[in-house]
Write a structure and sequence with these properties.
Blueprint (H helix, E strand, L loop, with lengths): L5 H33 L3 H10 L2 H10 L12 H35 L1 H5 L3 H29 L9 H4 L2 H22 L9 H13 L1
């Protein structure tokens, strides 16, 4: 008998340990694959959905819980944090956009506008182009500065991020931020001289 033969008993023990180690390694490998799957992008999930067979899908569904836990909506505090984190970067975007637009548009209006007869609206359009290009270059800087401010993280689940109330809070924060930033970006209007001011000053100089 097997239990009466020490040699066979030792072999059986080693085989059992090897099988246990193999099972553990296989489980760890499967866990790693599932963790990677949880981090897959929508594009990767679409590719896998096209390649996977119905049998594999059925086996996965059989392993999943029969019921899913309902995800609660974000709290009011979390929604406020979403609004603030969305608002702050757009204050910077709005400020930079309007500030550069006004400075560049005024410079073009008072130089090329006078010498070449470019209209004020054309100068504003060129200034807007310059501010948009500058916004592309400064976008990353503004986002980095906002990230360094240490704003509270709402710590939302993926399902909560996809909820309508969260999206409304996000876009509300973006809108408020842009409005505040654009209003602050109009500060150069307090000290800039318009083309009409320069023409009036030139007329007074000629009169004197």
């Amino acid at each position: 008998m097997l239990w009466r033969n020490p040699r066979l008993s030792g072999v059986a023990s080693r085989l059992a340990r090897a099988a246990s180690t193999t099972t553990t390694s296989s489980a760890d490998a499967n866990r790693a694959v599932l963790q990677r799957l949880a981090q897959a992008t929508d594009h990767e999930l679409s590719l896998m959905a096209q390649a996977i067979d119905a049998g594999t899908v059925a086996r996965i569904q059989a392993l999943l819980p029969a019921t899913t836990v309902a995800v609660p909506p974000p709290s009011k505090a979390q929604l406020r944090q979403v609004m603030v984190r969305s608002m702050v970067p757009f204050i910077g975007f709005g400020f930079v956009d309007n500030f550069i637009l006004i400075i560049a548009g005024d410079y073009i209006d008072t130089t090329l506008g006078v010498s070449l007869g470019i209209s004020t609206m054309a100068a504003a359009g060129i200034g807007n182009t310059i501010s948009d290009v500058a916004g592309i270059g400064l976008g990353g800087v503004i986002e980095d500065c906002a990230a360094r401010m240490g704003l509270a993280d709402p710590k939302l689940l993926k399902e909560q991020l996809d909820m309508r109330v969260t999206r409304v809070a996000h876009y509300t924060g973006c809108t408020i931020g842009v409005v505040i930033g654009c209003m602050l970006g109009m500060a150069p209007l307090l000290f800039l001289e318009t083309k009409e001011d320069l023409q009036a000053k030139a007329t007074l100089d000629v009169a004197h």
